[in-house]
Amino acid sequence: MINSADADNGCSMVQHGVVPEFQKRYFDYFARLDPVFAAHSRLEVGRPICLSPFAPGGLFTDGEFYSDWFAAQGFYDGLGAVVYSHGERRLWLSVARPENGLALDHVEGFARLLPFVTRALRVAERLGTLTDRQAALHDTLAAATHGVMLVDRQHRPVFVNPAAEALLRRGQPLRVRSGRLVACDVAVDTALQIALAAGRVCDLAVPRHGQRPLLLSVVPVGRRAADGAGLDASVAAMIVASDPDMRPWPRLEGFARLYGLTAAEAKVLAALLDGDGLEQAADRLGVGRATVKTHLNRILGKTSCLRQNELIRLIARTLPSLREQ
């Protein structure tokens, strides 16, 4: 049986031979009487402990826990050990016997097993931590307005966020061909493949028909950095695609709340960030040019900015470039 417990709660991770009714009663009542968990903070990880009120050095005493829970199931003695410890949480592995006769070879065999159990639990925790970290990282990248792609050493994408997926569609400047990331422009693709193969930082201007060029930044990812970030070990580079035709700050609610902007002022700010002049913003919002100018002056006053370009710089320093959800 492997039990997990801390100061407040616990659960059975693996068990065999314990009657379900007794399993429930253990965590409902008897866990607080169990001398194993009462003493677990003093128990050394990987050190076998005798579970018996009769053997020298046995952890049990002939009390309510032993008589009403342990012996009540027909157990007589056994062995146990803390196999994992992290903070206040402990994992306890125990083996109980229905009759007397705990021999030295039983103790030695149990002791030989413990390092393997402890190592397996540590590996499992490591894998679980990495999985959680990877999921969190991918969720964060998925919310970015910039296209983000992670590629392996064969230049194959292993992660593509939604913004990058849009750049890989038909008619766009990037492609996945035979599993590899390529640029449609021959000169750009040559530079991209060289940068990926050499593992060096590189910025590339990717031409687009009828639009401003796309800026492609190639950043190599070392194995140590990939491991520290929880990335798959195969990741060799991160490619960030910046689209100058896309407003990088679609989410303005937080900025508006921070500086006390009214709903009307926030709409004017959004129009200006889209590249509208005062006339275009007025037409879009259905108000007069003077009204837009008044709102802009109030925004500048609330943000302590003197000019519109200073306001844009303030927004760039304040807001992350996250997509609307």
Strand content: 15-25%
The total of beta strands comes to 12
Task: Specify Rg, calculated over alpha carbons.
Answer: 32 Å
Distance between the termini: 45 Å
CA-based shape = elongated
Reading side by side through the largest sheet, how are the strands ordered?
A: 2-1-5-4-3
Number of helices: 12
Which structural class is indicated by helix and strand composition? alpha+beta
The percent range for helix content is 40-55%
Q: On the 0-100 scale, what is the average pLDDT?
A: 77
**SSE pattern:** EEHHEHEEHEEHEEHEEHEHHHHH
**Biggest sheet record:** 5 strands, antiparallel
Could you name the ranges where pLDDT drops below 50 across 5 or more consecutive residues?
Answer: 225-231
Structure characteristics:
alpha+beta; 325 residues; five-stranded antiparallel sheet; 42% helix
Quick recap of the structure?
Helices cover 42% and strands 23% of the residues. It is α+β, with helices and mostly antiparallel strands and 325 residues long.
